Amino acid sequence: MTQHVRILRIGALAERFGVSPESLRVWERQGLIPAAYRTPGGHRRYGVEHVRAITRLIYASEPVAMPSGERVPPELADQS
Predict the structure, then answer these.
(1) 3-state secondary structure 4-60
(2) How far is CA 69 from the centre of its chain?
(3) CA–CA separation, 79 and 59 (whole Å)
(4) How far is CA 31 from CA 24, 25, 28, 50, in A?
(5) From the CA atom positions of the chain, what is the Rg in Å?
(6) What does each of the 80 residues of the chain score in pLDDT, given as a tens digit?
(7) Model pTM?
């Protein structure tokens, strides 16, 4: 059986998890999620391994409510 992997753009992935695209960029820079694939034009694309990593990051511990409505793990809540 073949598994189909959907490739997501940053906005779609951010919406799926209820976070901002900037949160995904920061998490990538901090090494909290794998580096995104890049198109020849430099646009980020995300696959199943990114979805898994973000799921672990967000839901591994009790999330903290942010004023923007985002859900952020407590260990990241005090970082700017």
Answers:
(1) CCCCEEHHHHHHHHCCCHHHHHHHHHCCCCCCCEECCCCCEEECHHHHHHHHHHHHC
(2) 15
(3) 18
(4) 10, 10, 5, 12
(5) 13
(6) 445 557 999 999 999 999 999 999 999 999 999 999 999 999 999 999 999 999 988 887 555 555 565 665 555 555 44
(7) 0.68
